[in-house]
Automatic annotation (TrEMBL):
The gene is lepA. Belongs to the TRAFAC class translation factor GTPase superfamily. Classic translation factor GTPase family. LepA subfamily. InterPro entries: EF-4, EFG_III/V, EFG_V-like, EFTu-like_2, G_TR_CS, LepA_C_sf, LepA_CTD, LepA_IV. Required for accurate and efficient protein synthesis under certain stress conditions. May act as a fidelity factor of the translation reaction, by catalyzing a one-codon backward translocation of tRNAs on improperly translocated ribosomes. Back-translocation proceeds from a post-translocation (POST) complex to a pre-translocation (PRE) complex, thus giving elongation factor G a second chance to translocate the tRNAs correctly. Binds to ribosomes in a GTP-dependent manner. GTP binds at residues 16-21, 133-136. NCBIfam families: lepA, small_GTP. This is Elongation factor 4. It is found in: Cell membrane. The keyword Transport does not apply. Its EC number is 3.6.5.n1. It catalyses: GTP + H2O = GDP + phosphate + H(+). Keywords: Cell membrane, GTP-binding, Hydrolase, Membrane, Nucleotide-binding, Protein biosynthesis.
Length: 598
């Protein structure tokens, strides 16, 4: 049987435990690429990902491995993103596999995302091969970590492989374990085509390209495929595999992993988790587990220069081609003019898009503070979803407001338990449970409002625990809370882009801190500017930005001309990210100030 020589696997790990480095070693060892070709960490192909040391976009590579038993195997390594924002994509790539390498740092032990990923792997019935990485480090404690894997995850770690992806220890042993311990894919070439989309990308010549894992059937040039969630149909013009570049093959069969192309114009038609079938010989049922990507965090994006609106629109269109989870629609702000309301999977996703707009498209943009989606029950007995605080109905029309809540898992050395509890208290958390992983490490479970996580939660967690805490969370639903909208008035006018929704108990302190912060961030202008925080018609805080005394250049009178020019340049530089709002110039930082309040 042809598929007996196939193994489909993933690598799961907490960030920085060595997933990408290990993937590189496997690619190198199997000679899939020459060392010269092998750029550092080929699987993390975007510059941004490399800089941040995270994997955002999944990819797949076919490795050809001649095992010790003399047989040649086709190993498909399916990469998973390493951040909590992308957990649905992780679950879909794991669904494409029969096994997973569980990489745990020998010095750090199990972290929150190790656990979250293991659960996803277990849900998908994967064979898990524990790999204890970084054993070259002097601080490595492989025996302790082995014990942790047994105690916390409850899987047998006696055959865990001790490895160093950096130095190259244990690589052959890992490849042998993949062949021997991970089962080959089951499936039948003669059954109707049933394949899972676990990723996609956009190619300017070939269109949107779904990456698929076939469970049953085959696909080749000329097959008429149908996307089972949308019913859209396409004729296949090319099928291929990743080596890691795209390599055309004649067909893909049950058990295999590869890509298909068929003049699919829109990546929105290649949804992760969807099932692709053959329309002329269709599967009765799609694969289970499909769901549509939901945006968790929204913000406004506005060009600094009004004339850049069309360029921003083009840029978003282009980014969306490669990223079906990016949502955007037109939005108008009284303060900022024409722009876009954008939806993201999480904060990291948001930051990545912002950075790409600036770096890849050279745009200068103003981003408003991120907001979650509130559910508002109106007095007219309607339910409206609000992703922009400025659009909250007036107080008199609101019966109640519900906010999204998450279940958070925080793993931390036990000496920080008190600190974490304090932080969660401040963040309106509800304690659920606590587990000792070992005598010195603890898992804490909390219910927390998503909006509190969006604010500086993660930074706080890291700084209060010297970087030792790790976090994972999942959305569990909506809960009613006592929330109000806080508006900011500059020069007696509400700046809609600075409005935010906050818990009543925190409104005063946040309002006070925000006006203080704004006073320090907004440069002095020719006249005095009052900065006020208001709830409804009530002013809760006020500061004044005093008028500028003299022209900056006055200092330079009589000075040399080059110094003067430098100053002017500097002023211009500073202006780049300033937005004229009415008669006041507001810097980008001011719009994000609300995030850095506590
Ligand atoms: P990922 O976030 O799981 O993909 O982790 P990376 O592969 O990017 O590795 C994170 C960091 O750990 C990098 O600086 C690697 O060079 C380092 N690293 C990875 N494997 C090893 C190892 O076996 N030993 C040591 N000492 N460092 C390693
Ligand atoms: Mg990585």
């Amino acid at each position: 049987n042809a598929s007996s020589k196939i193994r489909n696997f993933s690598i799961i790990a907490h960030i920085d435990h060595g997933k990408s480095t290990l993937a590189d070693r496997l690619i190198e060892y199997t000679g899939t690429m020459s060392t010269r070709e092998l750029k550092e960490q080929v699987l993390d192909s975007m510059d941004l990902e490399r800089e941040r040391g995270i994997t955002i976009k999944l990819q797949a590579v076919r490795l050809r491995y001649k095992a010790k038993n003399g047989e040649v195997y086709e190993l498909n390594l399916i990469d998973t993103p390493g951040h909590v924002d992308f957990s649905y994509e992780v679950s879909r790539s794991l669904a494409a596999c029969e096994g997973a390498l569980l990489v745990v740092d020998a010095a750090q032990g199990i972290e929150a995302q190790t656990l979250a990923n293991v659960y996803l792997a277990l849900e998908n019935d994967l064979e898990i091969i524990p790999v204890i990485n970084k054993i070259d480090l002097p601080s490595a404690e492989p025996d302790r970590v082995k014990q942790e894997i047994e105690d916390v995850i409850g899987i047998d770690a006696s055959e865990a492989i001790l490895a160093s992806a950096k130095v190259g220890i244990g690589v052959e042993e890992i490849l042998e374990a993949i062949v021997q311990r991970i089962p080959p894919p089951k499936g039948d070439d003669e059954e109707p085509l049933k394949s899972l989309i676990f990723d996609s990308k956009f190619d300017s010549y070939k269109g949107a390209i779904p990456y698929i894992r076939l469970f049953d059937g085959k696909v080749s040039k000329g097959t008429n495929i149908r996307m089972m969630s949308t019913g859209k149909m396409f004729e296949i013009t090319e099928v291929g595999v990743f080596t890691p570049g795209m390599t055309i093959v004649d067909e893909l069969r049950a058990g295999q992993v590869g890509y298909i192309a068929g003049s699919i114009k829109n990546v929105g038609d290649t949804r992760v988790g969807d099932t692709v079938t053959d329309n002329d010989h269709a599967a009765a049922e799609p694969l289970s587990g499909y769901r549509k990507a939901v945006s968790m965090v929204f913000c406004g994006l506005y060009p600094v220069e009004t004339s850049d609106f069309d360029r921003l629109k083009d840029a978003l269109e282009k980014l969306q081609l490669n990223d079906a989870s990016l949502m955007y629609e037109n939005e108008t702000s009284a303060a900022l003019g024409f722009g876009f309301r954008c939806g993201f999977l999480g904060l990291l996703h948001m930051e990545i898009i912002q950075e790409r707009l600036e770096r890849e498209f050279g745009l200068s943009i103003i981003t408003t503070a991120p907001s979650v989606v509130y559910k508002v029950n109106t007095t007219a007995k309607e339910q409206v979803f609000i992703d922009n605080p400025a659009l909250l109905p007036p107080e008199g029309k609101i019966e109640s407001i519900e906010e999204p809540v998450v279940k958070a898992t925080i793993m931390v050395p036990s000496e920080y338990v008190g600190t974490i509890m304090e932080l969660n208290q401040e963040k309106r958390g509800t304690f659920l449970n606590m587990d000792y992983i070992t005598a010195s490490r603890v898992s804490l479970y909390y219910e927390l409002p998503l909006s509190e996580i969006v604010y500086d939660y993660f930074d706080q967690l890291k700084s209060r625990t010297k970087g030792y805490a790790s976090l994972d969370y999942e959305l569990i639903g909506y809960k009613e809370a006592d929330l109000v909208k806080l508006d900011i008035m500059l020069n007696a006018e509400i700046v809609d882009a600075l409005s935010f929704i906050v818990h009543k108990d925190k409104a005063y302190s946040r309002g006070r801190k925000l006006v203080e912060k704004l006073r320090s961030l907004i440069p002095r202008q020719m006249f005095e500017i009052p900065v006020q925080a208001v709830i409804g018609a009530k002013v809760i805080a006020r500061e004044n930005i005093r008028a500028m005394r003299k022209d900056v250049l006055a200092k330079c009178y009589g000075g040399d001309i080059s110094r003067k020019r430098k100053l002017l340049e500097k002023q211009k530089e500073g202006k780049k990210r300033m937005k004229q709002v009415g008669s006041v110039e507001i810097p980008q930082d001011a719009f994000m100030a609300v995030l850095k309040m506590d």
